[in-house]
Design brief:
It is a single chain. By secondary structure, this protein is an all-alpha fold. It is globular. It starts with a helix and ends in a 12-residue tail after the last helix.
């Protein structure tokens, strides 16, 4: 798999829907409802195609579709300024819940976002990933931890913003909400990197090295042939 192909799922399932939303809304002047509706077409088609043709559920496509549906429902919220501030945290909670559900189902969806950065489009690392994923419980646990960290961080961000919306002045929360989001993202990267992505990268590097050493040892033994036995040697 080339490095470009490794990022195709992220581009199709995340970048295209999110980018099309802003294109429809800011570029074509559509309303929020229309922009969310049209940007949901790609993830909806991807989800349907996976279920019907491949008998699988595309986690990233389902997550984006779920977030868009939540956004459509929240777009009807109006009136109370504090409720409007809470509305901004709805997307974070939707993503966090979706991620945690995927872990409970045994399909941690944040793997799709992490894997391209660790594999880097290298076929050797891709093969090492497959071996570890099928044969190493420690590797699979780290994979689940990565998604759990992000699910908890996003839900935590939602809770903090809701509490702030009803306990702090509205003018304060208008700018503080963005600060909370940035802090949550930084925290997510640091914790998930320390607990999961970092150890997984080390396991991948070790697996690649062990495989190369094993292949080299096998090739050396094949080249030298069987070890000669001295004529007349007596077996003990």
């Amino acid at each position: 798999m080339t490095k470009q192909k490794a990022f195709v799922p992220l581009i199709v399932d995340v970048a295209v829907p999110v980018g099309s939303y802003y294109l429809f809304k800011n570029g074509f002047g559509m309303g929020t409802l229309a922009a969310l509706g049209w940007s949901s077409v790609v993830p909806a088609v991807r989800t349907g195609w996976g279920v019907v043709k491949e008998r699988t559920v595309n986690g990233l496509a389902v997550l984006i579709l779920f977030v868009n549906v939540v956004g459509l429902l929240l777009s009807f919220v109006a009136g109370d300024p504090r409720l409007m501030l809470v509305k901004d945290s709805g997307v974070s909670s939707a993503i966090g819940i979706g991620i945690l559900v995927s872990v409970a189902m045994g399909k941690p969806m944040m793997t799709a976002g992490m894997k391209p950065w660790l594999v880097k489009g290298d076929e050797t690392r891709e093969a090492a990933w497959a071996r570890l994923q099928s044969g190493s419980e420690h590797f699979r646990r780290a994979e689940r931890v990565f998604s759990v960290v992000w699910g908890v961080v996003l839900l935590g961000e939602c809770v903090v913003r809701i509490v702030g919306a009803y306990t702090l002045p509205v003018d304060t929360m208008v700018w503080l909400g963005t600060v909370i989001m940035v802090v949550a993202m930084v925290l997510g990267f640091l914790v998930s990197g320390a607990l999961a992505a970092g150890p997984m990268a080390a396991m991948l590097a070790r697996e690649v090295c062990d495989k190369e050493m094993g292949d080299k040892g096998g090739a050396d033994r094949s080249a030298t042939g069987p070890v000669p036995v001295a004529v007349g040697a007596v077996a003990e």
